[in-house]
Amino acid sequence: MRAAAARAASTTHRILLPLFLFAALCESDPDLLLDYCVADTAAAASLHLNGLPCIDPARARAEHFATSALSRATNPSSATPFGFNATVTSPAASLPGANAQGLAMARVDLAPGGVAPPHSHPRASEVALVLAGSVLVGFADTSYRLYTQLLRAGEAFVFPRGMVHFMYNVDVAAPAVVLSGLNSQSPGAQLVPLSAFLTEPRMPEEILEKAFKINGQDVHRIQRNLGG
Ligand SMILES: *[C@@H]1O[C@H](CO)[C@@H](O)[C@H](O)[C@H]1NC(C)=O
């Protein structure tokens, strides 16, 4: 009995060990914490970092791992033309203890009828929990299938990494608050309307006309409406 178990264990070992080594060798590159990282070809011996440099661990205090950045309501109506505002924790500004932990949190304030317009986080999956209000959330996958759900307070939804998604406060009388967890300390965000219509410098008008099947006047109207 014991011999059979030992044989089974050693077989498992023989199969798993090469698999494990193979997986370790094939590990992908570490994730970028920036949109890009142009190589400094002139630097002879540079410092190699992923995230921010660390303080002496002996100087760490509990406060480094705590933040009140998400406790304050912001004013979503005046923050953006969409009626939303997002506060994201960052190791540099509000949560040093999260450095190199691969996570961030975000508070999204939505005005009555406000929307966090279609956007994506290139470096993070997100799980969004509605703290207050009724929020219609959704994302589109790469085959353009749309997944939507109406969330009430206490309910949560996952936006897979990089997928274009939105949050919409369907209540036209009351604000909504969403709290999100993201699995990067630098999730990044690209809002679709801004990536198309409000880049600096502007995308050539012909591109926008052809991409959206609109004319030059439409392009300018949209840019004005977005505050550009
Ligand atoms: C929007 O949120 C940011 C981050 O918390 C904050 O700095 C800004 O003051 C807010 N804007 C308004 C209008 O509340």
From TrEMBL:
Signal peptide annotation: 1-28
Gene Ontology biological process terms in this record: plasmodesmata-mediated intercellular transport; regulation of root development
Functional description taken from the UniProt entry: May play a role in plant defense. Probably has no oxalate oxidase activity even if the active site is conserved.
Keyword Cell membrane on entry: no
CDD domains noted in UniProt: cupin_OxOx
GO molecular function: manganese ion binding
Domain Cupin type-1: 68-220
InterPro entries xrefs: Cupin_1, Germin, Germin_Mn-BS, RmlC-like_jellyroll, RmlC_Cupin_sf
Protein name stated in the entry: Germin-like protein
SUPFAM superfamilies: RmlC-like cupins
Positions that bind oxalate: H121, E126
Domain of life: Eukaryota
Protein source organism: Setaria viridis (Green bristlegrass)
UniProt-annotated location(s): Secreted, Extracellular space, Apoplast
Stored Pfam families: Cupin_1
Quaternary structure (record): Oligomer (believed to be a pentamer but probably hexamer).
Residues that hold Mn(2+) according to the record: H119, H121, E126, H165
Entry's Gene Ontology cellular component terms: apoplast; plasmodesma
Homology family: Belongs to the germin family.
Predominant cellular place of this UniProt entry's protein: secreted
Disulfide bonds: C37-C54
Sorted UniProt keywords: Apoplast, Disulfide bond, Manganese, Metal-binding, Secreted, Signal
